[in-house]
Amino acid sequence: MSTPYWGPDFDALAAFDPDIAGVVVDELDRLRGGLQLIASENFTSPAVLAALGSTLSNKYAEGYPGRRYYGGCEVVDRAEEIGIARGKELFGAEHVNLQPHSGASANLAAYGAFLKPGDTLLGMALPHGGHLTHGTKVSFSGKWFDAVQYGVRPDTEHIDYDQVRDLAREHRPKLIVCGGSAIPRLIDFAAFREIADEVGAILMVDAAHFIGLVAGKAIPSPVPYADVVTFTTHKVLRGPRGGAIVCKAEHAKAIDKAAFPMMQGGPLMHAVAAKAVNLKECLQPEYRTYARQVIANAQALSDGLAAEGLRPVAGGTDTHLALLDLQATGVTGADAEQRCDAAGIVLNKNAIPFDPQPASIASGIRVGSPAVTTQGMAEDDMKAIASLIGTALRDADGSRTAEVAAGVRELVGAHPAYPAPRSSSPPQSAD
Ligand code: DSN
């Protein structure tokens, strides 16, 4: 590295555009000042942010390394090749595509590789913990495909594998998708594989939520079972906002063609480089420790909230998130979200299975441990957080908001997010 680094210069931004510089600073303050419990969010490292804010953003690179539609791609090719190699190593994958801009894009590409409009798709219903792109009527997945939906059992709130099998036999889907946004328990990938094989369907695992736990070897991997695994790179994984796909070698061509040119144009090479940085981080031993702590923290948080009178859906969690039924408290999900937010606890209202409330109100909340674990919090902190949430929920008139907010300040003061002072100085050259 002989040429001087040229990267984000915050002082220049502040001088030229104080409005947007103010937004950037305020958002950092917001992240630092509250408890971020949105299960799909995390704090990306300065190394990832440096790649994201680099001049790789300038390059058009339609195509894949060595076969692009533009000249001058020999440098950005290296970023993608390095990232792909790291993804293969991390996940034991036969093929990796780092180009999808998001999880929804990755899912669209995977459907595009295997389905035609009108084909049948079997996915988990959104109100039971699935995802918008798994066949919901308002999404392309429910508009373009004949989407059949499975859910959880009313007694256990675990995925109803008997229902999945029955629906698969009845509807003969071309593709079965598992995974979702509010599934606290592990998914039985072997059971899905067996059902897919019985009806000759492609098995797609949308691992967006839990891929970081797979990367950290804290839960079983779907990669050996699935034809294709899609994921986002910004949740537990802790990379830049974006998507990715891994698949069996036999599907590599179809997936690559679906990602480009069917679904997207030019890849975001700064994001691809940042994904490569993140994958290197995930290959470090410290990341495994992090992934295990994420689960321990989610379990401690779920247990703590149960002690506050909230009911953990499915009886608890094996992952990074817990879904809590608030019905016994008489507080709706929307009210809970608002009361917590007022005190600096950021979480989201969430439908619970068989929810009597509309999604805009919801009977539950979803909490996740990825961000607070990145801050270095542990089980005792989760107990304190659960107690603060319990107090906020019972505080109908807002008279205890200041007390809860003080508790939040104490926790984030002891474990600050992005603790290092902000600096626009260039890093030292490596040679
Ligand atoms: N919106 C994301 C989540 O919060 O789970 C999934 O796309």
Produce the secondary structure layout:
Elements: H1 10-16, H2 18-33, E1 35-36, H3 46-52, E2 63-64, E3 67-68, H4 74-91, E4 95-97, H5 103-114, E5 120-124, H6 140-143, E6 146-150, H7 161-171, E7 175-178, H8 189-199, E8 202-206, H9 211-215, E9 228-232, E10 243-247, H10 252-263, H11 269-282, H12 285-307, E11 311-312, E12 321-325, H13 333-342, E13 345-346, E14 348-350, E15 364-368, H14 370-374, H15 379-394, H16 401-414
Parallel strand pairs: 1-13, 5-6, 5-7, 7-8, 8-9
Antiparallel strand pairs: 2-3, 4-10, 9-10, 11-12, 12-15, 14-15
Bound molecules: D-serine.
Residues 40, 103, 181 line the site of D-serine (DSN).
Task: Please describe the structure with a list of short key phrases separated by commas or semicolons.
single chain; 431 residues; alpha/beta; Aspartate Aminotransferase, domain 2; Aspartate Aminotransferase, domain 1; seven-stranded mixed sheet; four-stranded antiparallel sheet; disordered C terminus; binds D-serine; cytoplasm; transferase
Task: Give the structure's gist in a few sentences.
The chain has 431 residues and is an alpha/beta fold.
